């Protein structure tokens, strides 16, 4: 990526002169004819170096630099003037000018100073990100008016993206290229907005909603998940926020949370499955919800928790990095814990559940062997466990759990998994014929026959057993895609595009 330089001068000839010299060095050059225009450009893009004249109408170069340094303390500014004025020189250097050059400019010296400035910027960028974020946080803490202004700006932006139908937004970092990216109707695209936020604005907005302790945690772990909420027009808006670093720049991911639970009957789940996975019956076991990010796993789980809460009795523990929907206790006592803020880690939270013997435990993700082992113990003690995974199908989810363990332990784990597993629901969203997304499902119910297949390491047989198990409430993804296509809810092309076994679905569609 080329270094980005902003030239600020009210004389077009001077700007053209600098551009002609710098473009030969393969820099990305931008121009502004005064300080106000420079701030507008700086709000749209981040610059590695600024070259500004002192004497300009409306705002001189020193005043421009004063305000710029408040936003970006590490900005590299080269001051150029035709006035050999020591007062301006001292003021510019006191406010952090990198170099001070007088006209007429020696172009060889000019290019050397530019290169030195860019080197300084790269060094500062690599070594002082933590210090810069702390300085910005201190500035917000000592300036309540600025804090409120930034906070309101963030709220306006969040309300705007929701009105545009964005279900997920990502901004900041080198890869964003100064743009805001959003998931709209399951497509991840650059967001069309009147203006983007530069990196410093993104940093300041996030710092406005972080406590000092949360900032310290993020800088230590280089990663932080948290919730943000505010009230507007009697509506409580809540968001899941994730912040991490890319090439020493902060990246921010924002996801609006649900304010309503989808009624369970909207999913058309087979009654045989519901009888096995809800608290109205004595069944227990591990229920895995799998599928890609954004496929509706958490939404379905919240619908099931709400159904249990209204129709069953018992205690429910929900463990997640960030709680997406707050459940009020109705017929069930519902406890919700966030990892790091309420419990130190997921395994510790799961082990504490063993002491309470809850009827239902909800786990965000199975990624580690100790998580899987603790889940097996919870099931053995009589709990039902809802857990998510990122895999495409039942067979892939089972193989993924087995792969968490060393090869020498897998025979034992297959036995434990076959005993603990209740069912697997694999989800994906498919573009519908009426411009909305349609949920397609693979449903696996663990029967005596499938348990034996898992124990004997015949995992590849499970697909055939699912396909033949419709009377038990099972269905393959292809069978559901076929049914959705026959109902006219999705097109045949989109069904094929979403199939795991396209050859089989193509054969089924021939007899539609």
Short description:
With 512 residues, the chain is α/β, with parallel strands linked by helices. The chain has helices at residues 12-23, 35-44, 61-71, 86-94, 107-127, 129-141, 144-163, 199-207, 212-221, 271-277, 297-311, 346-356, 369-380, 394-403, 410-420, 448-455, 462-467, 477-486, 492-498, 502-509; strands at 4-8, 28-32, 49-53, 77-81, 99-102, 166-171, 181-184, 187-190, 223-232, 235-246, 249-256, 285-290, 314-320, 332-338, 360-363, 384-389, 421-431, 437-445.
In helices, the fraction of residues equals: 40-55%
- Distance between the ends: 52 Å
| Secondary structure tally, helices | 20
Low-confidence stretches: none
The main sheet comes to: 7 strands, mixed
Oligomeric description of these chains: single chain
- Beta-strand percent range: 15-25%
What does the radius of gyration come to?
A: 29 Å
- Coarse morphology: elongated
In round numbers, the mean pLDDT is: 87
Spatial strand sequence of the major β-sheet = 14-13-15-16-12-17-18
Number of strands: 18
Structural class: alpha/beta
């Amino acid at each position: 990526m080329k270094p980005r330089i902003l030239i600020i001068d009210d004389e077009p000839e001077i700007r053209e002169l600098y551009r002609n010299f710098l473009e030969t060095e393969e820099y990305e050059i931008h121009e502004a004819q005064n300080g106000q225009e420079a701030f507008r450009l700086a709000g749209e893009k981040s610059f590695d170096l600024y070259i500004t004249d002192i004497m300009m109408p409306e705002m001189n170069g020193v005043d421009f630099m004063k305000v710029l340094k408040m936003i970006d303390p590490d900005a590299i500014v080269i001051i150029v003037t035709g006035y050999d004025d020591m007062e301006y020189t001292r003021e510019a250097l006191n406010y952090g000018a990198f170099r001070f050059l007088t006209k007429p400019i020696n172009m060889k010296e000019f290019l050397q100073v530019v290169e030195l400035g860019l080197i300084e910027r790269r060094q500062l960028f690599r070594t002082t990100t933590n210090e810069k974020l702390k300085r910005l946080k201190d500035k917000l803490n000592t300036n309540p008016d600025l804090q409120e202004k930034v906070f309101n700006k963030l709220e306006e932006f969040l309300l705007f993206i929701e009105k545009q139908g964005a279900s997920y937004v990502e901004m900041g970092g080198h890869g964003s290229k100064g743009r805001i990216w959003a998931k709209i109707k399951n497509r991840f695209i650059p967001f069309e907005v009147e203006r983007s936020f530069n990196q410093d604005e993104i940093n300041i907005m996030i710092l406005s909603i972080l406590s000092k302790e949360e900032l310290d945690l993020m800088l230590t772990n280089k990663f932080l998940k948290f919730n943000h909420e505010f009230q507007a027009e009697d509506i409580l808006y809540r968001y899941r926020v994730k912040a991490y670093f890319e090439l020493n720049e902060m990246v921010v991911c924002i996801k609006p949370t649900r304010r309503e639970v989808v009624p369970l009957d909207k999913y058309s789940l087979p009654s045989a499955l519901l009888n096995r996975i809800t608290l109205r019956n004595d069944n227990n076991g591990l229920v895995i919800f799998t599928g890609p990010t954004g496929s509706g796993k958490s939404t379905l789980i919240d619908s099931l928790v709400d159904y249990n809460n209204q129709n069953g009795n018992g205690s429910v523990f929900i463990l997640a990095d960030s709680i997406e929907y707050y459940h009020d206790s109705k017929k069930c006592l519902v406890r919700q814990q966030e990892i790091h803020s309420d419990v130190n880690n997921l395994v510790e939270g799961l082990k504490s559940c063993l002491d309470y013997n809850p009827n239902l435990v909800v786990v965000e993700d199975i990624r580690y062997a100790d998580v899987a082992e603790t889940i097996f113990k919870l099931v053995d003690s009589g709990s039902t466990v809802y857990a998510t995974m990122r895999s495409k199908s039942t067979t892939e989810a089972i193989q993924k759990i087995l792969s968490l363990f060393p090869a020498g332990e897998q025979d034992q784990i297959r036995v434990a998994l076959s005993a603990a597993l209740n069912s697997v629901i694999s989800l994906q969203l498919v573009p519908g014929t009426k411009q909305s997304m349609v949920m397609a499902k693979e449903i696996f119910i663990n029967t005596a026959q499938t348990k034996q297949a898992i124990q004997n390491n015949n995992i590849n047989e499970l697909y055939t057993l699912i396909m033949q198990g419709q009377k038990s409430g099972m269905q393959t993804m292809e069978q559901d895609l076929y049914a959705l296509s026959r109902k006219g809810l999705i097109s045949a092309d989109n069904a094929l595009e979403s199939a795991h076994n396209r050859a089989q679905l193509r054969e089924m569609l021939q007899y539609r």
